[in-house]
Amino acid sequence: MPAMSRLERTELRQPDGRRVTLYGPHQPAPPGYQAPLAQPGIYERRWNPLRREWVLVAAARQGRTFLPVRSRCPLCPSTGEHSTEIPARAFQLAVFENRFPSLRADGDRSGRPEAVASAGVCEVVVYTPEHEGSLATLAPERVADLAEVWADRYRVLAARPDVRYVFIFENRGEAVGVTLHHPHGQVYGYPFLPPHAAAELRAGSGTGCPICAQLDRERRAAIRVLFRASAAVAYVPSFARWPYEVHVVTPAHLPCLLDLSRSARRSFALALQRVVRAYDRLFKTTMPYMMVLHQRPTDGRAHPRAHLHAEFYPLLRDRARLKYLAGSESGAGVFINDTLAEETAARLRTLMA
Ligand SMILES: [Zn+2]
Ligand SMILES: [Zn+2]
Ligand SMILES: [Zn+2]
Predict the structure, then answer these.
(1) How many CA within 13 A on the CB side of residue 88?
(2) Does residue 214 sit in the same domain as residue 283?
(3) Element (H, E) at 93
């Protein structure tokens, strides 16, 4: 992929078989480096015939590192005293196969008849060697590099026969269950089309794209649009389920990150950063959120309606007040939003730098 040439790429393999990819220049692991080892466990998926959806079983995740002190952070560069997940004394961005995955191609199985062997992959994307900070504080060049890494992971995982959907996302904040503070995101390579992606691809009529249609509605209404950049439009969708939910959409109908030019990927990623910065200003605290990218499935089918976009689900509905997925949301699938999208958009717009 010629567009990646600026960011050099080094592939390494840990003794337990997990892949590590370093992007940009790096320095090798210190002498005496001891790679952490993946734990055995039961990995499979089980079909829920009532909801017609898969449940991932990953019954080895209990030993996960939980909010370690900085000197024990597994995402920092390795030192002579502390071996981390990254076998390098220095690096720029790094991707490694999660030691506590939700999906893996070679896990043990319970052997139960209702279970299917797991497949796919879970990766961690380390945004920076710096322990402090977040997507909001990364330098613009680093944000642009992150977009290149995302595009490269999409390309690499899409080529795997067991990956039918590449899901790039970030969970941020302890309220979302994040167990590590070091700035990072994740990539799941699902062996099936996840329900939310499938629902979006079913929406729209004929070959019409539902994202293009919503973008058109938001542009005409104008009141919920936060900003426009060369390769991104950000808005609070009229149907926001979460207070302060924001969608970032490419103005052109493009299925995935690989269909954008390098400068368009940069513009798109910087738009995501602008949203996070506004979130952090909103309640003058680090906003816990989930950010997800929806792109074209990688199952070999055409999917003409697929349209790259990001969705942000922030968890705070007010200062120190969390939005919970309670009875109606969890049991009926019906979200209750106690804010008006037009008002949250107006408030976020004043916080956009
Ligand atoms: Zn760290
Ligand atoms: Zn579209
Ligand atoms: Zn979506």
Answers:
(1) 25
(2) yes
(3) strand 93-97
Q: Verify that 43 and 178 share a domain, yes or no.
A: yes
256 CA from centroid of ligand 2 (Å): 11
CA of 219 from ligand 1 middle (Å) equals: 41
Which residues have their alpha-adjacent CB atom under 5 A from ion ligand 3? 200, 294
Ligand nearest, relative to CA of residue 75: 1
Identify the nearest ligand to the CA of 248 by its number. 3
Q: State the catalytic residue, choosing from 26, 181, 182, 184.
A: 184
Q: For 51-80, b where at least 16 C-beta lie within 10 A, e where not — what string?
A: eeebebbbebeeeeeeeeeeeebbbbbbee
252 alpha carbon – ligand 2 mean position (Å): 7
- Measure 308 CA to ligand 2 centroid, in angstroms: 8
DSSP 175-225: GGT----SSEEEEEEESS--HHHHHHHH-SSTT--HHHHHHHHHHHH-TTE
Q: How many structural domains comprise the chain?
A: 2
First to last CA, the chain: 33
The domain boundary, picked from 192, 225, 248, lies at 192
Q: Are residues 317 and 328 in the same domain?
A: yes
Per-residue pLDDT of the chain (353 residues; tens, 9 = 90+): 444 457 999 999 999 999 999 999 999 999 999 999 988 889 999 999 999 999 999 988 666 677 778 889 999 999 999 999 999 999 999 999 999 999 998 888 888 888 999 999 999 999 999 999 999 999 999 999 999 999 999 999 999 999 999 999 999 998 888 888 999 999 999 999 999 999 999 997 676 899 999 999 999 999 999 999 999 999 999 999 999 999 999 999 999 999 999 999 999 999 999 999 999 999 999 999 999 999 999 999 999 999 999 999 999 989 888 988 899 999 999 999 999 999 999 999 999 97
Final residue of a structural domain among 192, 216, 232: 192
Domain range for 349: 195-353
| Same domain? 295 vs 314 | yes
Ligand closest to Cα of 245 equals 3
Distance 130 CA to ligand 1 centre (A): 6
- Same domain, yes or no, for 66 and 4? yes
Give me the CATH number covering residue 327. Answer: 3.30.428.10
**184 annotated active-site:** yes
Residue 219 and residue 97 share a domain:
no
User: How far does residue 259's CA lie from ligand 2's centre (Å)?
Assistant: 13
